[in-house]
Amino acid sequence: MMDIDSFGSAIISGEIPKNTMIKGVGVSVGIGIGQVVLMERLVADTCPCRILSPEEIPDEVARFEAAVETAENRLRTIRSSIESGHPLDDHSYILDAHIMLLRDKMLYEGTRQSIEKGSQNAEWALSEIMAKITAAFDSIDDDYLKERARDVHFVGDRVLRILLGVSSEKKMHQLPPNSILVSHDLSPADTAQLKRESVLAIATDVGGKTSHSAIMSRSLKIPAVTGLEKVSRLVQTGDTIIVDGSTGLVIINPDAEMIFRYRQRQELLRNYHQSLLAYGRLPAVTRDGARTIRVLANIELVDEVDIAVAHGCEGIGLFRTEYLFIGRPDLPTEEEQFGAYKAVLSLNKPYPVTIRTLDIGGDKIASSLNLPRETNPAMGLRAIRLCLNIKDVFKTQLRAILRAACFGHCRLLIPMISCITEVHATKSILEEVKQELSNEGIPHGGDIDFGILVEVPSAVAIADLLAREVDFLSIGTNDLIQYSLAIDRMNEHVNYLYDTLHPAVLRLIRQVVNAGQAYGVNVGMCGEMAGDPINIPILVGLGIDELSMNALSIPIVKKLIRSISYEDCLELTHQAFQMQSAQGIHDFLEKWIFDRFPGDYFLSQQ
Ligand code: PEP
Ligand code: MG
Fold it and tell me: Which of 387, 410, 526, 569 is catalytic?
Protein backbone atom coordinates (compact mmCIF):
# COMPACT_ATOMS: atom_id res chain seq x y z
CA MET A 1 0.00 0.00 0.00
CA MET A 2 1.20 3.47 -0.79
CA ASP A 3 0.48 6.59 1.16
CA ILE A 4 -0.20 9.88 -0.60
CA ASP A 5 2.83 11.66 0.84
CA SER A 6 5.33 9.07 -0.25
CA PHE A 7 4.93 9.19 -3.99
CA GLY A 8 5.37 12.81 -5.06
CA SER A 9 7.51 11.76 -8.03
CA ALA A 10 4.84 9.35 -9.18
CA ILE A 11 2.36 12.24 -9.50
CA ILE A 12 4.73 14.07 -11.82
CA SER A 13 5.44 11.07 -14.01
CA GLY A 14 1.73 10.26 -14.14
CA GLU A 15 2.19 6.76 -12.80
CA ILE A 16 0.10 6.13 -9.78
CA PRO A 17 1.28 3.18 -7.75
CA LYS A 18 -1.12 0.37 -7.14
CA ASN A 19 -3.32 0.66 -4.05
CA THR A 20 -2.64 4.35 -3.48
CA MET A 21 -4.78 5.42 -0.55
CA ILE A 22 -6.00 8.90 0.17
CA LYS A 23 -8.15 9.96 3.07
CA GLY A 24 -10.90 12.54 2.90
CA VAL A 25 -14.21 13.10 4.64
CA GLY A 26 -16.83 10.39 4.22
CA VAL A 27 -20.02 12.39 3.62
CA SER A 28 -22.37 9.72 2.31
CA VAL A 29 -22.03 6.09 3.40
CA GLY A 30 -21.51 3.02 1.22
CA ILE A 31 -18.79 1.62 -1.05
CA GLY A 32 -18.40 2.18 -4.79
CA ILE A 33 -15.95 0.25 -6.98
CA GLY A 34 -15.75 1.28 -10.62
CA GLN A 35 -14.15 3.33 -13.36
CA VAL A 36 -13.28 6.98 -12.97
CA VAL A 37 -15.11 9.55 -15.04
CA LEU A 38 -13.03 12.65 -14.49
CA MET A 39 -14.81 15.96 -14.73
CA GLU A 40 -12.68 18.75 -16.13
CA ARG A 41 -11.46 21.30 -13.64
CA LEU A 42 -12.97 24.75 -13.69
CA VAL A 43 -11.60 26.66 -16.66
CA ALA A 44 -10.95 30.04 -15.00
CA ASP A 45 -7.17 29.51 -14.88
CA THR A 46 -6.79 28.96 -18.62
CA CYS A 47 -8.57 31.96 -20.10
CA PRO A 48 -7.18 33.92 -23.06
CA CYS A 49 -6.32 37.59 -22.35
CA ARG A 50 -6.78 40.34 -24.93
CA ILE A 51 -6.90 44.14 -24.81
CA LEU A 52 -9.91 45.35 -26.76
CA SER A 53 -10.01 48.30 -29.12
CA PRO A 54 -12.69 50.91 -28.15
CA GLU A 55 -14.93 49.79 -31.06
CA GLU A 56 -14.93 46.18 -29.88
CA ILE A 57 -16.16 46.99 -26.38
CA PRO A 58 -19.96 47.23 -26.94
CA ASP A 59 -20.01 43.85 -28.72
CA GLU A 60 -17.95 42.27 -25.98
CA VAL A 61 -20.36 43.51 -23.31
CA ALA A 62 -23.25 42.11 -25.34
CA ARG A 63 -21.41 38.79 -25.72
CA PHE A 64 -20.96 38.61 -21.95
CA GLU A 65 -24.62 39.46 -21.28
CA ALA A 66 -25.77 36.84 -23.75
CA ALA A 67 -23.55 34.22 -22.09
CA VAL A 68 -25.07 35.03 -18.70
CA GLU A 69 -28.54 34.69 -20.18
CA THR A 70 -27.71 31.31 -21.72
CA ALA A 71 -26.30 30.12 -18.38
CA GLU A 72 -29.46 31.31 -16.65
CA ASN A 73 -31.72 29.50 -19.09
CA ARG A 74 -29.74 26.32 -18.66
CA LEU A 75 -29.93 26.49 -14.86
CA ARG A 76 -33.68 27.09 -15.10
CA THR A 77 -34.05 23.98 -17.26
CA ILE A 78 -32.11 21.88 -14.74
CA ARG A 79 -34.18 23.39 -11.95
CA SER A 80 -37.46 22.51 -13.63
CA SER A 81 -36.28 18.95 -14.34
CA ILE A 82 -36.44 18.29 -10.58
CA GLU A 83 -40.02 17.20 -10.32
CA SER A 84 -42.02 17.11 -7.17
CA GLY A 85 -41.29 13.90 -5.27
CA HIS A 86 -37.73 13.71 -6.71
CA PRO A 87 -35.18 12.98 -3.95
CA LEU A 88 -33.71 16.45 -4.53
CA ASP A 89 -37.03 18.26 -4.47
CA ASP A 90 -36.20 19.79 -1.09
CA HIS A 91 -32.86 21.10 -2.33
CA SER A 92 -33.91 22.84 -5.53
CA TYR A 93 -33.75 26.22 -3.75
CA ILE A 94 -29.97 25.91 -4.08
CA LEU A 95 -30.34 26.20 -7.85
CA ASP A 96 -32.57 29.26 -7.42
CA ALA A 97 -29.79 30.84 -5.41
CA HIS A 98 -27.31 30.09 -8.22
CA ILE A 99 -29.63 31.67 -10.78
CA MET A 100 -29.70 34.82 -8.66
CA LEU A 101 -25.94 34.72 -8.18
CA LEU A 102 -25.44 35.07 -11.94
CA ARG A 103 -26.57 38.70 -11.56
CA ASP A 104 -24.57 39.27 -8.36
CA LYS A 105 -23.36 42.87 -8.31
CA MET A 106 -19.68 42.06 -7.92
CA LEU A 107 -19.70 39.25 -10.46
CA TYR A 108 -21.99 40.71 -13.11
CA GLU A 109 -21.42 44.44 -12.84
CA GLY A 110 -17.76 43.95 -11.93
CA THR A 111 -17.15 41.97 -15.12
CA ARG A 112 -19.03 44.48 -17.28
CA GLN A 113 -16.96 47.31 -15.83
CA SER A 114 -13.68 45.49 -16.46
CA ILE A 115 -14.73 45.04 -20.10
CA GLU A 116 -15.87 48.65 -20.49
CA LYS A 117 -13.26 50.47 -18.44
CA GLY A 118 -10.39 48.00 -18.47
CA SER A 119 -10.81 47.03 -22.16
CA GLN A 120 -10.48 43.36 -21.19
CA ASN A 121 -12.06 40.56 -23.16
CA ALA A 122 -15.04 38.97 -21.37
CA GLU A 123 -13.29 35.71 -20.35
CA TRP A 124 -10.33 37.58 -18.87
CA ALA A 125 -12.54 40.11 -17.09
CA LEU A 126 -14.78 37.42 -15.59
CA SER A 127 -11.95 35.12 -14.49
CA GLU A 128 -10.19 38.04 -12.78
CA ILE A 129 -13.34 39.00 -10.91
CA MET A 130 -13.83 35.35 -9.87
CA ALA A 131 -10.25 35.23 -8.56
CA LYS A 132 -10.75 38.47 -6.62
CA ILE A 133 -13.96 37.24 -5.02
CA THR A 134 -12.33 33.94 -4.04
CA ALA A 135 -9.30 35.70 -2.52
CA ALA A 136 -11.60 37.99 -0.52
CA PHE A 137 -13.65 35.07 0.82
CA ASP A 138 -10.59 32.92 1.47
CA SER A 139 -9.11 35.45 3.87
CA ILE A 140 -12.15 35.06 6.14
CA ASP A 141 -12.19 32.22 8.61
CA ASP A 142 -15.78 31.20 8.10
CA ASP A 143 -16.96 27.99 6.50
CA TYR A 144 -20.18 29.51 5.28
CA LEU A 145 -18.42 32.28 3.39
CA LYS A 146 -15.91 29.82 1.95
CA GLU A 147 -18.80 27.79 0.59
CA ARG A 148 -20.19 30.95 -1.01
CA ALA A 149 -16.88 31.50 -2.83
CA ARG A 150 -17.39 28.04 -4.33
CA ASP A 151 -20.89 29.02 -5.43
CA VAL A 152 -19.45 32.05 -7.23
CA HIS A 153 -17.02 29.73 -9.01
CA PHE A 154 -19.76 27.31 -10.03
CA VAL A 155 -21.84 30.00 -11.72
CA GLY A 156 -18.82 31.88 -13.11
CA ASP A 157 -17.47 28.66 -14.61
CA ARG A 158 -20.77 28.06 -16.35
CA VAL A 159 -20.59 31.48 -18.02
CA LEU A 160 -16.89 31.06 -18.89
CA ARG A 161 -17.54 27.77 -20.64
CA ILE A 162 -20.22 29.40 -22.76
CA LEU A 163 -17.91 32.31 -23.64
CA LEU A 164 -15.11 29.92 -24.57
CA GLY A 165 -17.41 27.73 -26.58
CA VAL A 166 -16.45 24.65 -24.60
CA SER A 167 -19.18 22.33 -23.46
CA SER A 168 -21.09 24.12 -20.74
CA GLU A 169 -22.44 20.83 -19.51
CA LYS A 170 -20.41 18.13 -17.94
CA LYS A 171 -22.80 15.54 -19.40
CA MET A 172 -23.79 14.40 -15.95
CA HIS A 173 -26.87 12.65 -17.26
CA GLN A 174 -24.85 10.72 -19.88
CA LEU A 175 -22.33 9.02 -17.62
CA PRO A 176 -21.61 5.42 -18.54
CA PRO A 177 -22.83 2.74 -16.12
CA ASN A 178 -20.63 1.96 -13.10
CA SER A 179 -19.04 5.39 -13.11
CA ILE A 180 -17.18 6.82 -10.18
CA LEU A 181 -17.41 10.53 -10.59
CA VAL A 182 -14.18 12.34 -9.73
CA SER A 183 -14.07 16.10 -9.80
CA HIS A 184 -12.25 19.01 -8.22
CA ASP A 185 -15.62 20.11 -7.01
CA LEU A 186 -19.20 19.33 -7.85
CA SER A 187 -21.79 22.05 -8.15
CA PRO A 188 -25.34 21.52 -6.95
CA ALA A 189 -26.46 21.83 -10.60
CA ASP A 190 -24.07 18.99 -11.57
CA THR A 191 -25.29 16.84 -8.68
CA ALA A 192 -28.92 17.50 -9.59
CA GLN A 193 -28.36 15.97 -13.03
CA LEU A 194 -26.77 12.73 -11.81
CA LYS A 195 -28.51 9.49 -12.64
CA ARG A 196 -28.45 7.34 -9.54
CA GLU A 197 -28.24 4.15 -11.65
CA SER A 198 -24.98 5.11 -13.39
CA VAL A 199 -23.04 6.71 -10.56
CA LEU A 200 -21.62 4.29 -8.02
CA ALA A 201 -19.82 6.92 -5.97
CA ILE A 202 -18.42 10.45 -5.93
CA ALA A 203 -14.94 11.67 -4.94
CA THR A 204 -13.97 15.36 -4.88
CA ASP A 205 -10.95 17.48 -3.92
CA VAL A 206 -12.90 20.00 -1.89
CA GLY A 207 -16.08 20.20 0.18
CA GLY A 208 -17.17 19.08 3.62
CA LYS A 209 -20.03 17.31 5.32
CA THR A 210 -22.38 20.28 5.06
CA SER A 211 -21.56 21.36 1.53
CA HIS A 212 -24.61 21.44 -0.71
CA SER A 213 -23.36 18.60 -2.87
CA ALA A 214 -22.73 16.42 0.18
CA ILE A 215 -26.27 16.96 1.38
CA MET A 216 -27.61 16.13 -2.07
CA SER A 217 -25.50 12.98 -2.44
CA ARG A 218 -26.88 11.72 0.88
CA SER A 219 -30.41 12.34 -0.37
CA LEU A 220 -29.58 10.41 -3.55
CA LYS A 221 -27.92 7.65 -1.46
CA ILE A 222 -24.71 7.84 -3.54
CA PRO A 223 -21.57 7.01 -1.51
CA ALA A 224 -19.33 10.09 -1.44
CA VAL A 225 -15.98 11.27 -0.10
CA THR A 226 -14.99 14.95 -0.22
CA GLY A 227 -11.96 16.95 0.92
CA LEU A 228 -9.49 14.63 -0.87
CA GLU A 229 -7.39 17.63 -1.97
CA LYS A 230 -5.68 16.09 -5.01
CA VAL A 231 -7.81 13.23 -6.25
CA SER A 232 -8.85 15.02 -9.46
CA ARG A 233 -5.17 15.54 -10.33
CA LEU A 234 -4.16 11.99 -9.54
CA VAL A 235 -6.62 10.02 -11.62
CA GLN A 236 -7.56 9.79 -15.30
CA THR A 237 -10.84 8.78 -16.85
CA GLY A 238 -10.94 4.99 -17.00
CA ASP A 239 -8.76 4.39 -13.91
CA THR A 240 -10.16 1.90 -11.45
CA ILE A 241 -10.96 3.36 -8.06
CA ILE A 242 -12.62 2.38 -4.79
CA VAL A 243 -14.56 4.98 -2.79
CA ASP A 244 -15.52 4.11 0.76
CA GLY A 245 -18.01 6.72 1.95
CA SER A 246 -18.16 5.16 5.43
CA THR A 247 -14.47 5.59 6.26
CA GLY A 248 -13.60 8.46 3.89
CA LEU A 249 -10.95 6.29 2.21
CA VAL A 250 -10.29 6.29 -1.54
CA ILE A 251 -8.04 3.70 -3.19
CA ILE A 252 -6.65 4.51 -6.63
CA ASN A 253 -5.52 1.75 -8.98
CA PRO A 254 -6.40 -1.05 -6.60
CA ASP A 255 -4.83 -4.39 -7.48
CA ALA A 256 -6.93 -7.50 -7.97
CA GLU A 257 -6.48 -8.53 -4.36
CA MET A 258 -7.65 -5.14 -3.06
CA ILE A 259 -10.68 -5.17 -5.35
CA PHE A 260 -11.48 -8.66 -4.21
CA ARG A 261 -11.16 -7.55 -0.58
CA TYR A 262 -13.43 -4.55 -1.10
CA ARG A 263 -15.98 -6.55 -3.07
CA GLN A 264 -16.06 -8.95 -0.17
CA ARG A 265 -16.34 -6.07 2.28
CA GLN A 266 -19.13 -4.56 0.19
CA GLU A 267 -20.95 -7.86 0.15
CA LEU A 268 -20.24 -8.60 3.79
CA LEU A 269 -21.36 -5.20 4.92
CA ARG A 270 -24.48 -5.39 2.81
CA ASN A 271 -25.41 -8.80 4.21
CA TYR A 272 -24.19 -7.96 7.67
CA HIS A 273 -26.16 -4.72 7.88
CA GLN A 274 -29.14 -6.46 6.39
CA SER A 275 -28.99 -9.26 8.95
CA LEU A 276 -28.34 -6.83 11.79
CA LEU A 277 -31.31 -4.68 10.94
CA ALA A 278 -33.52 -7.26 12.64
CA TYR A 279 -31.70 -6.50 15.92
CA GLY A 280 -32.52 -2.84 15.48
CA ARG A 281 -36.16 -3.68 16.07
CA LEU A 282 -35.48 -5.48 19.36
CA PRO A 283 -34.96 -3.91 22.78
CA ALA A 284 -31.41 -3.74 24.14
CA VAL A 285 -31.92 -6.03 27.14
CA THR A 286 -28.91 -7.84 28.57
CA ARG A 287 -28.95 -11.63 28.19
CA ASP A 288 -29.81 -12.12 31.87
CA GLY A 289 -32.63 -9.59 31.63
CA ALA A 290 -31.02 -7.51 34.37
CA ARG A 291 -30.58 -4.24 32.42
CA THR A 292 -32.39 -2.55 29.55
CA ILE A 293 -30.53 0.24 27.81
CA ARG A 294 -32.39 2.70 25.61
CA VAL A 295 -30.55 3.07 22.30
CA LEU A 296 -31.08 6.32 20.44
CA ALA A 297 -29.68 8.16 17.45
CA ASN A 298 -27.68 11.36 17.01
CA ILE A 299 -28.79 13.52 14.11
CA GLU A 300 -27.70 16.80 12.58
CA LEU A 301 -30.35 17.16 9.90
CA VAL A 302 -34.06 16.40 9.73
CA ASP A 303 -33.32 14.25 6.65
CA GLU A 304 -31.43 11.77 8.83
CA VAL A 305 -34.50 10.71 10.84
CA ASP A 306 -35.58 8.13 8.24
CA ILE A 307 -32.26 6.28 8.43
CA ALA A 308 -32.27 6.47 12.23
CA VAL A 309 -35.78 5.00 12.43
CA ALA A 310 -34.93 2.28 9.87
CA HIS A 311 -31.96 1.25 12.04
CA GLY A 312 -34.12 0.87 15.14
CA CYS A 313 -33.53 4.02 17.17
CA GLU A 314 -35.74 4.39 20.20
CA GLY A 315 -35.80 8.14 19.82
CA ILE A 316 -33.27 10.86 19.16
CA GLY A 317 -30.69 11.26 21.92
CA LEU A 318 -29.04 14.30 20.35
CA PHE A 319 -30.39 16.65 17.70
CA ARG A 320 -27.53 19.04 16.98
CA THR A 321 -29.62 22.07 16.07
CA GLU A 322 -26.66 24.26 15.12
CA TYR A 323 -26.82 22.85 11.59
CA LEU A 324 -30.01 24.88 11.15
CA PHE A 325 -27.85 27.96 11.78
CA ILE A 326 -24.65 27.08 9.91
CA GLY A 327 -24.11 27.60 6.19
CA ARG A 328 -26.44 30.55 5.65
CA PRO A 329 -26.22 34.32 5.86
CA ASP A 330 -29.30 34.80 8.04
CA LEU A 331 -30.75 33.27 11.19
CA PRO A 332 -33.47 30.62 10.88
CA THR A 333 -36.84 32.08 11.82
CA GLU A 334 -38.98 30.75 14.65
CA GLU A 335 -41.34 29.22 12.07
CA GLU A 336 -38.52 27.46 10.25
CA GLN A 337 -37.12 26.03 13.47
CA PHE A 338 -40.59 25.05 14.66
CA GLY A 339 -41.09 23.16 11.38
CA ALA A 340 -37.82 21.24 11.78
CA TYR A 341 -38.37 20.34 15.45
CA LYS A 342 -41.99 19.36 14.83
CA ALA A 343 -40.96 17.12 11.92
CA VAL A 344 -38.38 15.25 14.03
CA LEU A 345 -40.81 14.88 16.94
CA SER A 346 -43.65 13.66 14.73
CA LEU A 347 -41.44 11.12 12.95
CA ASN A 348 -40.22 9.63 16.23
CA LYS A 349 -43.48 9.25 18.06
CA PRO A 350 -43.88 7.91 20.76
CA TYR A 351 -40.15 7.97 21.44
CA PRO A 352 -38.38 10.97 22.95
CA VAL A 353 -36.52 13.55 20.89
CA THR A 354 -33.70 15.35 22.64
CA ILE A 355 -33.25 18.79 21.13
CA ARG A 356 -29.94 20.34 22.03
CA THR A 357 -30.01 24.11 22.08
CA LEU A 358 -27.58 26.00 19.91
CA ASP A 359 -23.99 24.81 20.38
CA ILE A 360 -22.28 27.46 18.28
CA GLY A 361 -18.75 28.63 18.95
CA GLY A 362 -15.59 26.53 19.09
CA ASP A 363 -15.23 24.88 15.70
CA LYS A 364 -18.83 25.62 14.65
CA ILE A 365 -19.36 29.08 13.25
CA ALA A 366 -22.59 30.76 12.16
CA SER A 367 -21.76 33.79 10.06
CA SER A 368 -25.15 35.36 10.80
CA LEU A 369 -24.16 35.79 14.44
CA ASN A 370 -21.09 37.83 13.51
CA LEU A 371 -19.09 36.63 16.48
CA PRO A 372 -15.66 38.03 17.26
CA ARG A 373 -12.72 35.76 16.61
CA GLU A 374 -11.30 34.24 19.81
CA THR A 375 -7.80 33.07 20.66
CA ASN A 376 -9.04 29.94 22.35
CA PRO A 377 -12.51 29.26 20.94
CA ALA A 378 -12.99 25.83 22.56
CA MET A 379 -12.87 27.55 25.94
CA GLY A 380 -14.54 30.72 24.77
CA LEU A 381 -18.01 32.07 24.23
CA ARG A 382 -19.56 28.77 23.18
CA ALA A 383 -22.86 26.94 23.51
CA ILE A 384 -24.91 28.00 26.54
CA ARG A 385 -22.44 30.76 27.40
CA LEU A 386 -23.14 32.32 24.03
CA CYS A 387 -26.90 31.71 24.20
CA LEU A 388 -27.14 33.51 27.52
CA ASN A 389 -25.36 36.39 25.79
CA ILE A 390 -27.63 36.53 22.76
CA LYS A 391 -30.87 36.17 24.62
CA ASP A 392 -33.12 37.08 21.67
CA VAL A 393 -31.72 34.31 19.47
CA PHE A 394 -31.94 31.86 22.38
CA LYS A 395 -35.53 32.83 23.18
CA THR A 396 -36.55 32.36 19.54
CA GLN A 397 -35.13 28.85 19.62
CA LEU A 398 -36.83 28.04 22.92
CA ARG A 399 -40.16 29.33 21.59
CA ALA A 400 -39.84 27.07 18.54
CA ILE A 401 -38.92 24.05 20.71
CA LEU A 402 -41.73 24.64 23.21
CA ARG A 403 -44.28 24.99 20.42
CA ALA A 404 -43.03 21.83 18.70
CA ALA A 405 -43.19 19.98 22.04
CA CYS A 406 -46.98 19.67 21.53
CA PHE A 407 -46.22 17.12 18.79
CA GLY A 408 -44.30 14.44 20.67
CA HIS A 409 -42.11 13.64 23.65
CA CYS A 410 -39.63 16.52 23.71
CA ARG A 411 -36.52 16.79 25.85
CA LEU A 412 -34.45 19.94 26.07
CA LEU A 413 -30.67 19.49 26.31
CA ILE A 414 -28.39 22.37 27.28
CA PRO A 415 -24.76 22.10 26.10
CA MET A 416 -21.57 22.98 27.95
CA ILE A 417 -22.98 23.65 31.39
CA SER A 418 -20.08 24.37 33.73
CA CYS A 419 -21.82 25.74 36.83
CA ILE A 420 -25.20 25.82 38.51
CA THR A 421 -25.71 29.52 37.75
CA GLU A 422 -26.01 28.67 34.05
CA VAL A 423 -28.72 26.14 34.85
CA HIS A 424 -30.65 28.71 36.86
CA ALA A 425 -30.25 31.38 34.19
CA THR A 426 -31.44 28.99 31.48
CA LYS A 427 -34.45 27.87 33.50
CA SER A 428 -35.43 31.44 34.15
CA ILE A 429 -35.34 32.28 30.42
CA LEU A 430 -37.32 29.11 29.71
CA GLU A 431 -40.00 30.19 32.19
CA GLU A 432 -40.07 33.66 30.63
CA VAL A 433 -40.63 32.13 27.18
CA LYS A 434 -43.38 29.81 28.45
CA GLN A 435 -45.11 32.78 30.05
CA GLU A 436 -44.88 34.81 26.85
CA LEU A 437 -46.34 31.96 24.79
CA SER A 438 -49.18 31.53 27.30
CA ASN A 439 -49.88 35.28 27.25
CA GLU A 440 -50.04 35.18 23.47
CA GLY A 441 -52.37 32.17 23.59
CA ILE A 442 -49.91 30.05 21.59
CA PRO A 443 -50.08 26.31 22.41
CA HIS A 444 -46.86 24.85 23.78
CA GLY A 445 -45.67 21.74 25.58
CA GLY A 446 -45.19 23.24 29.02
CA ASP A 447 -43.57 20.37 30.89
CA ILE A 448 -40.77 19.20 28.61
CA ASP A 449 -37.89 17.31 30.22
CA PHE A 450 -34.96 19.51 31.11
CA GLY A 451 -31.47 18.02 30.79
CA ILE A 452 -27.88 19.10 30.50
CA LEU A 453 -24.84 17.84 28.67
CA VAL A 454 -22.10 16.88 31.06
CA GLU A 455 -19.04 17.66 28.98
CA VAL A 456 -16.96 19.98 31.14
CA PRO A 457 -14.97 18.50 34.07
CA SER A 458 -16.48 21.02 36.52
CA ALA A 459 -19.95 19.64 35.66
CA VAL A 460 -18.73 16.16 36.61
CA ALA A 461 -17.34 17.45 39.87
CA ILE A 462 -20.73 18.95 40.78
CA ALA A 463 -22.81 16.22 39.12
CA ASP A 464 -24.59 15.65 42.45
CA LEU A 465 -25.65 19.29 42.60
CA LEU A 466 -26.67 19.36 38.95
CA ALA A 467 -28.60 16.09 39.20
CA ARG A 468 -30.95 17.73 41.71
CA GLU A 469 -31.81 20.41 39.16
CA VAL A 470 -32.56 18.34 36.07
CA ASP A 471 -34.67 15.52 34.62
CA PHE A 472 -31.72 13.85 32.88
CA LEU A 473 -27.98 14.04 32.37
CA SER A 474 -26.26 13.27 29.09
CA ILE A 475 -22.51 12.72 28.99
CA GLY A 476 -20.85 14.38 25.99
CA THR A 477 -17.62 12.44 25.82
CA ASN A 478 -16.30 14.21 22.72
CA ASP A 479 -15.83 17.38 24.71
CA LEU A 480 -15.43 15.80 28.14
CA ILE A 481 -12.34 13.96 26.89
CA GLN A 482 -10.84 17.06 25.29
CA TYR A 483 -11.38 19.18 28.39
CA SER A 484 -10.40 16.59 30.99
CA LEU A 485 -7.27 15.35 29.19
CA ALA A 486 -6.41 18.88 27.92
CA ILE A 487 -6.38 17.76 24.30
CA ASP A 488 -7.82 20.00 21.61
CA ARG A 489 -10.03 17.58 19.63
CA MET A 490 -9.33 19.56 16.43
CA ASN A 491 -5.54 19.57 16.83
CA GLU A 492 -3.89 16.78 14.81
CA HIS A 493 -0.61 17.13 16.77
CA VAL A 494 -2.12 15.96 20.04
CA ASN A 495 -4.78 13.65 18.67
CA TYR A 496 -2.73 10.62 19.65
CA LEU A 497 -3.36 11.49 23.31
CA TYR A 498 -7.14 11.46 22.83
CA ASP A 499 -7.92 8.28 24.77
CA THR A 500 -11.56 7.36 25.21
CA LEU A 501 -10.60 4.63 27.65
CA HIS A 502 -8.23 6.74 29.75
CA PRO A 503 -8.75 5.67 33.41
CA ALA A 504 -9.57 9.32 34.18
CA VAL A 505 -12.39 9.35 31.63
CA LEU A 506 -13.87 6.14 33.00
CA ARG A 507 -13.77 7.54 36.53
CA LEU A 508 -15.50 10.73 35.40
CA ILE A 509 -18.26 8.70 33.77
CA ARG A 510 -18.67 6.60 36.92
CA GLN A 511 -19.02 9.76 38.99
CA VAL A 512 -21.83 11.09 36.78
CA VAL A 513 -23.68 7.76 36.76
CA ASN A 514 -23.42 7.54 40.55
CA ALA A 515 -24.80 11.07 40.91
CA GLY A 516 -27.69 10.25 38.57
CA GLN A 517 -28.52 7.09 40.49
CA ALA A 518 -28.35 8.86 43.84
CA TYR A 519 -30.94 11.41 42.71
CA GLY A 520 -33.08 9.14 40.51
CA VAL A 521 -32.08 10.89 37.31
CA ASN A 522 -31.49 9.13 33.98
CA VAL A 523 -27.91 9.20 32.72
CA GLY A 524 -27.21 8.87 29.01
CA MET A 525 -24.20 9.25 26.78
CA CYS A 526 -24.21 10.90 23.34
CA GLY A 527 -20.53 11.32 22.49
CA GLU A 528 -18.89 9.09 19.87
CA MET A 529 -17.82 6.73 22.66
CA ALA A 530 -21.42 5.49 22.96
CA GLY A 531 -21.50 3.97 19.45
CA ASP A 532 -18.22 2.04 19.46
CA PRO A 533 -18.85 -1.65 20.23
CA ILE A 534 -15.64 -2.00 22.24
CA ASN A 535 -16.99 0.39 24.89
CA ILE A 536 -20.41 -1.18 25.28
CA PRO A 537 -19.73 -3.82 27.99
CA ILE A 538 -18.00 -1.34 30.29
CA LEU A 539 -20.73 1.28 29.76
CA VAL A 540 -23.35 -1.33 30.66
CA GLY A 541 -21.25 -2.32 33.67
CA LEU A 542 -21.05 1.31 34.75
CA GLY A 543 -24.85 1.49 34.79
CA ILE A 544 -25.50 3.94 31.96
CA ASP A 545 -29.23 4.17 31.10
CA GLU A 546 -29.12 5.43 27.50
CA LEU A 547 -26.70 5.39 24.60
CA SER A 548 -27.10 7.73 21.65
CA MET A 549 -25.03 7.19 18.52
CA ASN A 550 -24.80 7.43 14.76
CA ALA A 551 -27.72 5.47 13.35
CA LEU A 552 -25.67 2.81 11.57
CA SER A 553 -24.16 1.59 14.87
CA ILE A 554 -27.54 0.96 16.51
CA PRO A 555 -28.13 -2.65 15.31
CA ILE A 556 -24.67 -3.93 16.29
CA VAL A 557 -24.86 -2.19 19.67
CA LYS A 558 -28.27 -3.73 20.35
CA LYS A 559 -27.05 -7.14 19.27
CA LEU A 560 -24.05 -6.87 21.58
CA ILE A 561 -26.10 -5.77 24.59
CA ARG A 562 -28.53 -8.64 24.01
CA SER A 563 -25.62 -11.11 23.95
CA ILE A 564 -23.90 -10.11 27.20
CA SER A 565 -24.98 -10.46 30.80
CA TYR A 566 -25.02 -7.58 33.25
CA GLU A 567 -23.17 -9.73 35.74
CA ASP A 568 -20.30 -10.27 33.28
CA CYS A 569 -20.24 -6.55 32.52
CA LEU A 570 -19.97 -5.73 36.22
CA GLU A 571 -17.04 -8.11 36.57
CA LEU A 572 -15.34 -6.69 33.45
CA THR A 573 -15.82 -3.14 34.74
CA HIS A 574 -14.37 -4.06 38.09
CA GLN A 575 -11.28 -5.51 36.41
CA ALA A 576 -10.86 -2.57 34.04
CA PHE A 577 -10.88 -0.17 36.98
CA GLN A 578 -7.83 -1.97 38.41
CA MET A 579 -5.83 -1.13 35.27
CA GLN A 580 -3.56 1.85 34.92
CA SER A 581 -3.38 2.73 31.25
CA ALA A 582 -5.81 3.40 28.42
CA GLN A 583 -3.92 0.97 26.21
CA GLY A 584 -4.14 -1.79 28.83
CA ILE A 585 -7.88 -1.23 29.21
CA HIS A 586 -8.36 -1.12 25.44
CA ASP A 587 -6.50 -4.42 24.93
CA PHE A 588 -8.44 -6.05 27.73
CA LEU A 589 -11.84 -4.94 26.36
CA GLU A 590 -10.92 -5.86 22.81
CA LYS A 591 -9.87 -9.36 23.82
CA TRP A 592 -13.00 -9.75 25.95
CA ILE A 593 -15.26 -8.97 22.99
CA PHE A 594 -13.17 -10.75 20.40
CA ASP A 595 -13.13 -13.97 22.45
CA ARG A 596 -16.91 -13.94 22.64
CA PHE A 597 -17.98 -12.43 19.30
CA PRO A 598 -15.07 -12.70 16.85
CA GLY A 599 -17.16 -12.30 13.67
CA ASP A 600 -19.18 -9.34 14.86
CA TYR A 601 -16.22 -7.54 16.29
CA PHE A 602 -14.24 -7.95 13.10
CA LEU A 603 -17.08 -6.65 10.97
CA SER A 604 -17.96 -3.71 13.15
CA GLN A 605 -14.35 -2.56 12.80
CA GLN A 606 -14.38 -2.62 9.01
C1 PEP B 1 -19.95 15.78 22.87
O2 PEP B 1 -19.22 16.73 23.15
O3 PEP B 1 -19.72 14.60 23.20
C4 PEP B 1 -21.15 16.00 22.05
C5 PEP B 1 -22.03 15.05 21.87
O6 PEP B 1 -21.29 17.21 21.45
P7 PEP B 1 -20.52 17.71 20.14
O8 PEP B 1 -19.75 16.57 19.56
O9 PEP B 1 -21.57 18.22 19.23
O10 PEP B 1 -19.65 18.79 20.70
MG1 MG C 1 -19.96 18.75 22.91
Answer: 526
